[in-house]
Amino acid sequence: MKSTVNEVRDSNHYDVIILGSGMSGSQMGAILGRQGFRVLIVEEATHPRFTIGESSIPETSLMNRIIADRYGVPEIQDITSFYSTFKKVSSSTGIKRNFGFVFHKPNEEHNPTHFTQCVIPELPWGPESHFYRQDVDAYLMHAAIRYGCTVKQKTTIKDYDLSKTGVAVTTTQGERYTGRYMIDCGGPRAPLALKFGLREEPCRYRTHSRTLYTHMVGVKPFDDIFKPKGQRWRWHEGTLHHMFHGGWLWVIPFNNHPRATNGLVSVGLQLDPRVHPKTDISAQQEFDEFLARFPTIAAQFKDARPVRDWVKSDRLQYSSKTTVGDRYCLMLHAAGFIDPLFSRGLENTSVAIHALAARLIKALRDDDFSPERFEYIDRLQQKLLEHNDDFVSCCYTAFSDFELWDAFHRLWAVGTMLGQFRLIQAHARFKEDRNEAHLDHLDDNPPHLGYLCADMDDYCRLFDSAKAEVDAVSEKRKSPKEAAARIHELIEKEEFARPLFSFGYCITGANRHLNNSKYSLVPALRLLNWTQRGAPPEVQKYFDYNPMFSLLKSYVGHRLELALK
Ligand SMILES: Cc1cc2nc3c(=O)[nH]c(=O)nc-3n(C[C@H](O)[C@H](O)[C@H](O)COP(=O)(O)OP(=O)(O)OC[C@H]3O[C@@H](n4cnc5c(N)ncnc54)[C@H](O)[C@@H]3O)c2cc1C
Description:
binds flavin-adenine dinucleotide, 8-stranded mixed sheet, 18 helices, alpha+beta, globular, 19 strands
């Protein structure tokens, strides 16, 4: 089944057949097309089409910057900061300068000290984005086309044929396409997962949540209702999470900056069905009843109305026994899902794309698709999902008590910063000598696969200890207060963790002295200074390049490129 350079361009034989043209299918297609492979992308729907997964995080952008640079796909670079996404991809993009977490108790006004906010550094790449997915997905699909992919939209596959020697699909129109490898980027309805009976019943994850979501107009900026002092950025300029016992609500504005052309706000309510069982009432009625219990949130939605039908789901979590097989792979979102909390879906997807692309390109060149070559992808995807599950399920426990949330969410804040250091270092080294080994090293079986910082023993040990505290709360062996105090104690002891709260990137209403500097440069320089001088060796190991020079170069390069284009 190997295709040769002599093979006719318009034959029905491809190197890779990709099912689904969401962000992962199109990114994968663009990468492979750019490397000269023949790629067919089959999409059931047509672009532009509504989809969910709108909030980006710094790790998503760092990973996509690596992918774009490594494989020469600048269109993927375009979605890696708000400034470039707004300018090059879609003026419907919202800005994300912070993650805001506001804690609520039913039938009570919000306590003004019960919040945390994590700031997205302005330097060097600028804020993250609220992706208006219909535009971003269409943009990436056109990039895939630009690099030679054949895209068949509004095409339904009737038969899938996979064997050790090749793959084939037949459409309902009777067309048959063959290939050397197949990637299922179909998301929750992943056709290969369904065909091979790969879904686990029941799903093995600890998290239990269901969702209701829509786009709305008339949602007030939360800052108009609740104005705590000492915050750097307005709630409205970020992804806002309202937390309460048994769930949380996302508010993702697209209309939150002066040049906004999109008046919509994305709204999604996650509920643990064990606490808030699903009933037959309509989503709107359920949302209204929810608002009636939370007066401060209700004030934000007083004049809001949906502009499209609500989506109301059953349990969101699904898992797969395996994510790779003979000549096929399920992309992360096709393999499993936990919960939108912390917006890790796209980040974990880009981690999986990076790892799969490197292996698949080699396999295509060698014409060798033996399962051992892809075994790591299965382990990686399973571990990413499992660790996310650990995090999120602990958070659902912590949603019941602000002190516990304030303590436990610091594990996320520390892990995400360390994880970013690791990615920035790998990319900086790659930029110095273009040696792909620096990037392959990210997937060189790190000891704590799936953790936010997969190669740092001390962080993973700290996480496990904190998780044990939260587990003790959910099993009623400890009170939330005791567990929170113990988690604070654990963090205080760690030289690699404690100082990270003094640079102003992580703010908590309960402890105002951690609050933020008014300027972007000051915290950035203080953090850099710490990584060079004060930090323990386990942090300094991520800074064995010249970070000041490298980050300055990135900043100037990024701003110059935007200005020139
Ligand atoms: C409620 C919710 C909120 C989320 N919020 C966030 C967030 O804020 N941030 C974040 O990072 N992630 C979020 N995620 C996760 C995010 O949605 C996914 O990580 C992301 O969409 C994955 O992209 P994808 O291209 O793999 O899949 P999808 O975006 O699901 O795309 C799948 C594509 O495959 C097509 N398709 C399906 N079946 C077939 C078939 N049989 N044949 C052909 N085509 C097919 C579909 O039409 C679709 O175009 C959220 C997920 C959910 C469920």
